[in-house]
């Protein structure tokens, strides 16, 4: 966990926010914004891009679970959920909303900081996996386009698969375009000439 974290704190109880703000600031963290409802928490998270959001479950206008789901779906920040209730139903809803940590009030320092560290660590892992998944999808898409373009060249010019690939490789290097762009051009040309 980096030394100073920028945190958005959302709870409709001012006293709870005050207690948590004191814990955070005494530990050297910055409370960048405070909200007393879920709508404001989402807006602040979008605007302030915090390292972490600490949010209560029960709040007016938009509850913490709904706000957490929005923040999580938009990959804005990790969410640590606070609740006065430890009922299984709320725990299940918290899991499905994508929160990365869950604390029952009253929040104690010895629970808060480890939970923050774990939530941030899991968020970074999820972001890295998302980036890796994006690269894999891109690679698969390129592979499919390349196979289709090779097939077109093989049937049009009688090349073997290896010859078609080599020709495409040479052409893409000579023209300084990616193999994916070349494959797309070969496919588009073949479709146009049908």
From TrEMBL:
Gene3D superfamilies linked: 3.40.50.2300, Winged helix-like DNA-binding domain superfamily/Winged helix DNA-binding domain
Q: Does the keyword 4Fe-4S apply?
A: no
GO biological process assignments = phosphorelay signal transduction system
4-aspartylphosphate: which positions carry it? 56
Which SMART domains does this one have? ANTAR, REC
Provide the alphabetized UniProt keywords. Phosphoprotein
Response regulatory domain location, by residue? 6-120
Question: What range(s) does the ANTAR domain occupy?
Answer: 126-187
List the Pfam families: ANTAR, Response_reg
User: Does the entry feature the keyword Phosphoprotein, yes or no?
Assistant: yes
Q: Which Gene Ontology molecular function entries are recorded, alphabetically?
A: RNA binding
Superkingdom of this entry's organism? Bacteria
Name of the protein this chain belongs to: Response regulator
């Amino acid at each position: 966990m980096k030394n100073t974290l920028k945190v958005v704190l959302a709870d409709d109880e001012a006293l709870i926010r005050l207690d948590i703000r004191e814990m955070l600031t005494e530990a050297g963290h910055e409370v960048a914004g405070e909200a007393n409802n879920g709508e404001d928490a989402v807006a602040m998270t979008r605007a302030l891009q915090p390292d972490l959001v600490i949010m209560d479950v029960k709040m007016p206008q938009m509850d913490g679970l709904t706000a957490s789901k929005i923040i999580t779906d938009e990959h804005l920040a990790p969410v640590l959920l606070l609740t006065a209730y430890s009922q299984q139903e709320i725990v299940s809803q918290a899991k499905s909303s994508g929160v990365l940590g869950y604390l029952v009030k009253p929040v104690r320092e010895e629970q808060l900081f480890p939970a923050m560290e774990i939530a941030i660590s899991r968020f970074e892992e999820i972001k890295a996996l998302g980036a890796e998944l994006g690269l894999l999808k891109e690679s698969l898409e390129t592979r499919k386009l390349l196979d289709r373009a090779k097939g077109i060249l093989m049937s049009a010019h009688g090349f073997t698969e290896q010859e078609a690939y080599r020709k495409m490789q040479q052409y893409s290097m000579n023209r300084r375009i990616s193999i994916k762009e070349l494959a797309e051009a070969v496919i588009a040309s073949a479709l146009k000439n049908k």
